[in-house]
Design goal:
This protein is α/β, with parallel strands linked by helices. It has two domains: about 130 residues, Rossmann fold (3-Layer(aba) Sandwich), CATH 3.40.50; about 140 residues, Rossmann fold (3-Layer(aba) Sandwich), CATH 3.40.50.720. Helix content is about 35%, strand content about 25%. The chain has ten helices and twelve strands. A six-stranded mixed sheet has the order 2-1-3-5-6-4, with helices on both faces. A six-stranded parallel sheet has the order 9-8-7-10-11-12, with helices on both faces. The longest helix has 16 residues. About 45% of the residues are buried. NADP nicotinamide-adenine-dinucleotide phosphate binds next to helix 6 and helix 9. NADP nicotinamide-adenine-dinucleotide phosphate (NAP) binds next to helix 6 and helix 9.
C-alpha cells in the first residue's frame, strides 16, 4: 500500500518538497505519495490531525509552523527541543516524533557537497531566527574554532548565546560589532534578501578563501552573495543543497533508506548570476 506523506505550510505552492521526495522515492523504489498542504494560519494542529486520520505517516513542516510542530509532538528530539522548532514529524500509533533536520542538512551540504570542513573554521551565522536556532547545534558538533551569531536585533543573538550555553561557546553581537572580525564561513540565515535588502556588513568580514552561503535558494545572486562577491569572495553558495539534504534526512528517518542527493541538487540549482 502506498504510504502518504506531505509538506504543510502557509503559503505552500512554492514548495519544492513534493518534487524532491518524488525523485527520492523513484530512486529508492519506495512506494510513497507526497503532497503539499496549505494549512490555515490558525489551523496547523487541525490540519495535521486530519492528515493523520486519513492514514498519513509523516509530514515536513515549513514556515510559519515550525515552532507549532515542535509543540505538537509528543516526542521531540533533543535537536528540535533545543531549536524550539521542528521541520519533520513522524506518526507512530499515538506517538508523534519530531525532528529538526535543517541544521544537519546545512552541515552535510557544507562539508560533503562543498568540501568545506567546519572543524577548526571560524563560522559566522547572520540572523537569530528559527534557521539559525536549527543550525547552531549541528555546526557546534563539528568543532569550529569560533562560532558567532550576529543579528539586527542584537538582544536576540545574546538570548541565543544564553540558550545554547551548555552546548556551545557562542559569540553574539549586532552587526556594528563585526568590524575587525574575519570568518572562513559566513552564512546568511536572515530573510533580508527576500525583500532585496543588503545587510550592513564590513567587506573585511570575509577571510581569504572564505565561503559565503545564503540559505535562501533559487534566487540567483542575492544581495548578500553580491556583497560577498564585491568583497572578493569566490566561493558562493545558495541554500538549495541544504533544502535537499534536510529532505534526504527526513526521507531516511521515515523510510529507513537514504537517497542520493547530487542529482536532485543539480536539477534544482539555478546559476548564481
Ligand atoms: P525568521 O525566524 O523569521 O528570522 C528572520 C531573521 O532575519 C531574523 O534574524 C531577522 O532579524 C532577520 N531579518 C529579517 N529582515 C531583515 C532585514 N531587513 N535586515 C536584517 N535582518 C533581517 O526566519 P528563519 O526561519 O530563520 O529563516 C531565515 C531564512 O532562511 C529565510 O529566508 C528562509 O527561507 C531560509 N531558510 C532556508 C532553508 C533551506 O533549506 N535552504 C531552511 C530554513 C530557512 P531580527 O531578529 O532583527 O528581526
Amino acid at each position: 500500500m502506498t504510504d502518504r506523506y506531505a509538506v504543510i505550510g502557509h503559503p505552500i505552492s512554492h514548495s519544492k518538497s513534493p518534487q524532491i521526495h518524488a525523485a527520492f522515492a523513484q530512486a529508492t523504489g519506495q512506494d510513497i505519495s507526497y503532497t503539499a498542504i496549505e494549512a490555515p494560519l490558525e489551523g496547523f494542529a487541525t490540519t495535521v490531525q486530519a492528515f493523520r486520520a486519513q492514514g498519513g505517516r509523516g509530514v515536513n513542516v515549513t514556515l510559519p509552523f515550525k515552532l507549532q510542530a515542535c509543540e505538537f509532538a509528543s516526542h521531540p528530539s533533543d535537536a528540535a527541543r533545543l531549536a524550539g522548532a521542528a521541520n519533520a514529524l513522524k506518526f507512530d500509533g499515538e506517538r508523534v516524533w519530531a525532528e529538526n533536520f535543517d541544521g544537519v542538512g546545512l552541515v552535510n551540504d557544507l562539508q560533503n557537497n562543498r568540501g568545506r570542513a567546519l572543524k577548526g573554521a571560524r563560522v559566522l551565522l547572520l540572523g537569530a531566527g528559527g534557521a539559525t536556532r536549527g543550525a547552531l547545534l549541528p555546526i557546534a558538533l563539528q568543532g569550529p574554532a569560533v562560532l558567532a551569531v550576529a543579528n539586527r536585533t542584537a538582544d536576540k543573538a545574546h538570548a541565543l548565546r544564553r540558550d545554547f550555553v551548555a552546548h556551545a561557546a557562542l559569540q553574539a553581537s549586532g552587526y556594528d560589532e563585526l568590524a575587525g572580525e574575519a570568518f572562513d564561513v559566513v552564512i546568511n540565515a536572515t530573510s533580508a534578501g527576500l525583500s532585496g535588502e543588503a545587510l550592513p556588513l564590513p567587506a573585511s568580514l570575509f577571510a581569504p578563501g572564505a565561503l559565503a552561503y545564503d540559505m535562501v535558494y533559487g534566487k540567483g545572486l542575492t544581495p548578500f552573495l553580491r556583497q560577498a562577491q564585491a568583497a572578493g569572495v569566490a566561493a558562493l553558495a545558495d541554500g538549495v543543497g541544504m533544502l535537499v539534504e534536510q529532505a534526504a534526512e527526513a526521507f531516511a528517518w521515515w523510510r529507513g533508506v537514504r537517497p542520493g542527493t547530487r542529482e536532485v541538487i543539480a536539477r534544482l540549482s539555478v546559476p548564481l548570476v
